Amino acid sequence: MVVSSILDITLVTLQNCPSSPSFTSDVFSRIAEAGVNIDMISQAPAHGDLTSLSFTIMDDDLGRILSFISELKISSPVKTIISSGNCKINIHDIAMKNTPGVASKVFTAVAEAKTDLRLITTSDVDISILVTPADFQETLELIEKAVG
Q1: pTM, rounded to two decimals
Q2: Residue 130, Cβ density class (10 Å: 0-12 exposed, 13-18 middle, ≥19 buried)
Q3: Which domains does the chain have, with CATH numbers?
């Protein structure tokens, strides 16, 4: 299993978003036009016609999407929450999809560190978590120990 990390990550959360694929497409198209790379993406289950959409970018790219966010807030009831300076920890293993218990080990380590989890995304072969800088080192060490 490979455990890696990236520092200086900004979490952008858009609350009260229309829960339509066209809204999501427009958001990511406009961010791409600004030349900003998106990493983690998480969408909450819809509540009626609304949802929340969270994604991460590098801290250095925040300035490039602030004007987009300002325009978005004018044209829709979207509330924006921005948190910079976060850290991403990624656990990757191609065998993970056939190995029960990996998530259990990771989140047991996260619980032991009393980590302030900001965002979780997964795939068949990855678990990515976004944490605060204050929790980063201990969480990283405990995860490495748990899956190592």
Answers
A1: 0.93
A2: buried
A3: 9-84 (3.30.70.260), 86-147 (3.30.2130.10)
